[in-house]
Amino acid sequence: MSDLLHGFWAPVTLPIQWGDQDAFGHVNNVVYLRWLETARIVYLDAVGLGHHAAEATSAERASATAAVGPILASVTCDFLRQLHYGDEVTIASRTTKIGNTSLTLEHLVASRDLGCIVARGISVCVAFDYTSQTKVTIPDAVRQKIAALEGNPI
């Protein structure tokens, strides 16, 4: 799997559940989006733009940095192969673009049993201040963590 996901970070491995399948006997398309969501959260936690801002108390949100977290602006997924119960997937991510207030993540989904990439996804996340309910500039500390993780400034 590591060869398939070379250059992608914060891998998450998940089993395919029986209930992930639909009436056609393969994993339903909505499940892939949940997998991308899980991978996105793990990656953003790793670079310091985690989901904790949305869970912060009012007192914690009074802190300028405690209130800043990600909000999803867009997500797409290209489905390359069918998957079935009993397999296991690993999803990993990387940042492909950083703007003033947003960043674009690319995700790969790899199948253990098929030994190949079975889906590709793109997520656009915006740095969001949950207290003021407005987008904000991506903090420099997050940019530095992304550069360190990715091995280069983006």
Explain what you see.
Strands 1, 2, 3, 4, 5 and 6 form a six-stranded antiparallel beta sheet that branches. The chain is α+β, with helices and mostly antiparallel strands and 154 residues long. Helix content is 24%, strand content 36%. 27% of the residues are buried. The protein is globular. The chain has helices at residues 29-46, 52-55, 58-61, 140-150; strands at 9-15, 68-79, 88-98, 102-111, 116-129, 134-135. The model has no long low-confidence stretch (mean pLDDT 90). It has one domain (9-150): Hotdog Thioesterase (Thiol Ester Dehydrase, Chain A), CATH 3.10.129.10. This is Thioesterase superfamily protein. InterPro entries: 4-hydroxybenzoyl-CoA_TE (IPR050563), HotDog_dom_sf (IPR029069).
Q: Give the name of the CATH architecture.
A: Roll
Taking all residues together, what is the mean pLDDT?
Answer: 90
- Estimate the helix proportion, in percent: 10-25%
CATH topology: Thiol Ester Dehydrase, Chain A
Low confidence ranges: none
Rg (C-alpha, Å):
17 Å
Helix/strand-derived category reads: alpha+beta
**CATH H-level superfamily:** Hotdog Thioesterase
Count of discrete domains? 1
Number of strands: 6
Sketch the topology as an H/E string, one letter per element: EHHHEEEEEH
The portion of residues forming beta strands comes to: 35-45%
Largest sheet: 6 strands, antiparallel
Shape: globular
Distance between the termini: 25 Å
Tally the helices: what do you get?
Answer: 4
